[in-house]
Specification:
With 324 residues, the protein is α+β, with helices and mostly antiparallel strands. The chain folds into two domains: 198 residues, no CATH class; 97 residues, Orthogonal Bundle (Cytochrome Bc1 Complex, Chain D, domain 2), CATH 1.10.760. Helices cover 16% and strands 34% of the residues. The protein is built from six helices and 19 strands. A six-stranded antiparallel sheet has the order 8-9-10-11-16-13, with no helix packed on it. The protein has a four-stranded antiparallel sheet with strand order 2-3-4-5, with no helix packed on it. Helix 4 packs across helix 6. The protein is globular.
């Protein structure tokens, strides 16, 4: 039985030579994230996740941690398709460390290794297939999602079922990154140690990785606007009014927005031109109350013109859904 998304090129692959032959066994990510249980580099038990747009990562279900990431294609299924099964699946890119500690999440004290780590599985978003991993560290329920907003950028989101009595800590090797940014209420207390206070039920940790010239051609950029929102926007801008780093799109059509432009206060009407400007020039008109928020990345370094058009159309369609 072939895994979902497996590309079989058939006779044409044979005629075109080794490159096409290897592509024959690629697990190709299209408009939905793919989750593949397998053995990968250095991890006999892995859950590999391929995201549309060329970002992939491996979640270690034993230690419940983000093990490593890569940019390019997803997985080569050849060892399984041509062997007896149980073989390690090569990744279609260069393995990149994010510096995650063997037990990155600690409860109560940063230097105290967890007594118990229990993996509870994962759930997948219906529209996009993006997984949220569920596990417990010393009995504390935690959910984790991993995203990327651009090459060399990795974002880890952590949610806690309820606030607790003890702070939580996320530990990593800071030498593996060129920068670490965190959401409001969360702080880097010392190099490689991030504190999530007991009263915080959500945290976002954004890692910048050292630049690499590594490229990989086997990928198909998605032009699904809803999926692009889920991959590139949802972590900072919700659709339901929920609090994140940036303003929620739930408020987009409720009336004029008050923004700061060139140091002056101004009212703007949310239309296609405003949405496009906010995507392409996010610092041009900053919604008041978000002046101190982390600056949005240059999305043109990640999405092409067709993808940006699709994202704009999706956001405009929300207005039509609201009947406004």
């Amino acid at each position: 039985m072939k895994p979902r998304g497996l590309v079989v090129a058939g006779l044409l692959a044979v005629l075109m030579g080794d490159t096409a032959q290897s592509q024959k066994f690629d697990i190709l990510v299209q408009d939905r994230a793919i989750v593949q249980r397998c053995s990968t580099q250095g991890l006999p038990r892995s859950i590999a996740v391929g995201m549309p747009g060329g970002f992939s990562y491996v979640f270690d279900p034993v230690a419940c941690r983000l093990a490593f990431v890569w940019f390019g294609g997803f997985l080569d299924f050849r060892p399984e398709a041509t062997g007896r099964g149980g073989g390690r699946l090569p990744i279609l890119g260069t393995k990149r460390s994010v510096g995650t500690a063997e037990s990155p999440l600690r409860i109560g004290a940063a230097d105290q290794e967890p007594m118990t780590i229990e993996f509870d599985g994962y759930r997948r978003e219906v529209a996009t297939g993006i997984p949220t991993f569920q596990f417990r560290v010393d009995g504390v329920p935690i959910e984790q999602r991993v995203l990327s907003f651009g090459r060399d950028q990795v974002t880890v989101e952590l949610s806690f079922a309820s606030v607790g009595d003890a702070p939580r800590f996320y530990c990593l090797d800071p030498k593996a990154t060129t920068g670490i940014a965190v959401s409001d209420g969360v702080q880097v207390v010392r190099p490689g140690v991030i504190e999530i206070p007991a009263e915080e039920s959500w945290a976002q940790i954004r890692l910048s990785l050292p630049h690499t010239a590594e490229t990989f051609a086997r990928q198909q950029p998605t032009t699904n606007g809803r999926l692009l929102y889920a991959i590139h926007c949802m972590a900072c801008h919700t659709l339901d009014g929920g609090k994140r780093i940036g303003p929620s799109f739930n408020e987009l059509w409720s009336g004029p927005r008050v923004v700061t432009r060139n140091g002056r206060s101004e009212e703007v009407v949310a239309d296609e031109a405003y949405i496009r400007e906010s995507i392409l020039k996010p610092q041009a008109a900053i919604v008041q109350g978000y002046e101190k928020a982390n600056q949005m990345i240059d999305i043109t370094q990640t999405l092409d013109v067709e993808q940006i058009d699709a994202l704009v159309k999706f956001l405009v369609s929300l207005r039509l859904e609201d009947g406004k």
